[in-house]
Amino acid sequence: MDELEQVAFNLISNVGMAKSLIMEGLVEARNSNYEGSEAKLKEADTYLTEAHHAHFGLIQKEAQGEPTTVSLILMHAEDQLMTTEVMKDLVKEMILMYKKINN
C-alpha cells in the first residue's frame, strides 16, 4: 500500500468513527441526555481533527510541488470528510431543536 492509500484509509477510518459518534450524540439528545450528546460530539471532533491533519498533510505536499495522484479511494475519503462535517453541523442544530422541544 502506498503512502496516498494509507492517508486515504486513515481519513476514512477517522471520519467513520466521527460519523458514528455524531449519530450516537443525536440519539443521546433524542433521549434528553444532552450531556452525553455533547460528550459524543466532542469525541467526534477528536477524530475529525485527526482526519483534517492527514488531509492537510496532502495539501501541504502538493503545495510544495509534490504531485498528488487522484484516486477513487482518495475521492471517497474526501467525500466522507465533507459530508461528515455537514452532518455534524446539522446534528448540532437538531440537538438545539430537541432542547427547545423538550423544554
Going by CATH, what is the homologous superfamily?
Phosphotransferase system, lactose/cellobiose-type IIA subunit
Cα(first) to Cα(last) distance is 52 Å
Give start-end ranges of low-pLDDT stretches.
Answer: none
The first-level CATH class is given as Mainly Alpha
Strand content: under 5%
Average predicted confidence as pLDDT:
94
String of helices and strands: HHH
User: What Rg do the Cα atoms give?
Assistant: 16 Å
- State the CATH topology: Methane Monooxygenase Hydroxylase, Chain G, domain 1
Please count the helical segments: 3
Give the tally of structural domains.
1
Quantity of strands, as a count: 0
CATH architecture, by name, is: Up-down Bundle
In this structure, how is the largest beta sheet organized? none
Query: Which structural category fits the helices and strands?
Result: mainly alpha
GO molecular function: metal ion binding; transferase activity
Cofactor: Mg(2+)
Modified residues (Phosphohistidine): 76
Protein name: Phosphotransferase system PTS lactose/cellobiose-specific IIA subunit
In summary, what is this structure?
This protein is mainly alpha-helical and 103 residues long. It has helices at residues 3-30, 34-63, 72-102.
